[in-house]
Design a protein that fits this description.
Shape: globular
Distance between the termini: 14 Å
Strand content: over 45%
Structural class: mainly beta
């Protein structure tokens, strides 16, 4: 499901370790693909991660350091 909602992401060594979305914490069990892209002067980081059976795609805006949940799906 495509989403574009703000989330809080906890980092360890500059890598996502948990996501807080709608008041619930999702520990990240695996980090998959990571890539960057630019829109104008803004650099974005995209992380594809697993939190239990959930796939999450996260986007970090490096200008304002805001995280967004871009996509979520259940792998079960």
């Amino acid at each position: 499901m495509l989403i574009a909602e703000p989330v809080t992401v906890g980092l360890v060594n500059h890598m996502p370790k948990y996501v807080i979305w709608k008041g619930r914490s999702y520990p990240i069990s695996k980090i998959g693909l990571h890539h960057t892209f630019r829109e104008g002067q803004t650099l974005y980081h995209i992380f594809s991660v697993l939190a239990g059976s959930l796939f999450l795609r996260l986007r970090l805006n490096t200008d304002n350091l805001q995280w967004r949940l871009e996509e979520i799906s259940d792998n079960d």
